[in-house]
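cron nightly-structures :: item 1 of 1
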Amino acid sequence: EVRLVESGGGLVQPGGSLRLSCSASGFTFGAYEINWVRQAPGKGPEWVSVIAVDGTTYISDSVKGRFTISRDNAKSTVALQMNSLKFEDTAVYYCNSNGFWGQGTQVTVSS
């Protein structure tokens, strides 16, 4: 059974940091790219970042310079380091790979 489980969300003040993690199982993790996608309240999904099989990364302009994606194939995990968080980063963050989605983790940026 393929599983993607996100963790690390929470409540943070503007300017703060969070580190999200996506733990995968049930497939050959190292053979697939992993995406982070977020959905803010009342809005559609927004792609945030992707890390390819070879470690190449791409990141949305909206978070460039603040978010960093990384992967650990030995642990089948992908991390999203989020710094300098803004109100507009509030969303449910999902990881996606191989056609599967996790349940999401809530990130709330509020003072």
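cron nightly-structures :: done
The first strand starts at residue 3 and ends at 7.
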